[in-house]
Design brief:
globular; alpha+beta; single chain; 3-stranded antiparallel sheet; Arc Repressor Mutant, subunit A; 22% strand
Length: 65
């Protein structure tokens, strides 16, 4: 399971590196992982202080630091 989460984290990092700021929902939809694994990947990157979360009126956006 840890390997799957790490792979999802890498996909998320690459996606945000290419596209910049995205909604959390957009990130989850774009990567090749289940919703729960995608959220764990986001948590992994957040714990490593690699993400910045921006609260907007319609939700939360995420981008690389």
């Amino acid at each position: 399971m840890i390997e799957e989460i790490g792979t999802a984290a890498g996909e998320i990092w690459n996606l945000l590196n290419e596209r910049g700021e995205l909604s959390i929902t957009g990130v989850v939809k774009e990567i090749n992982a289940s919703q729960s694994t995608a959220y764990m990947g986001l948590g992994w990157l957040a714990r490593e202080n690699k993400l910045e979360f921006v609260k907007k009126s319609r939700g939360v956006l995420v981008k690389l630091r």
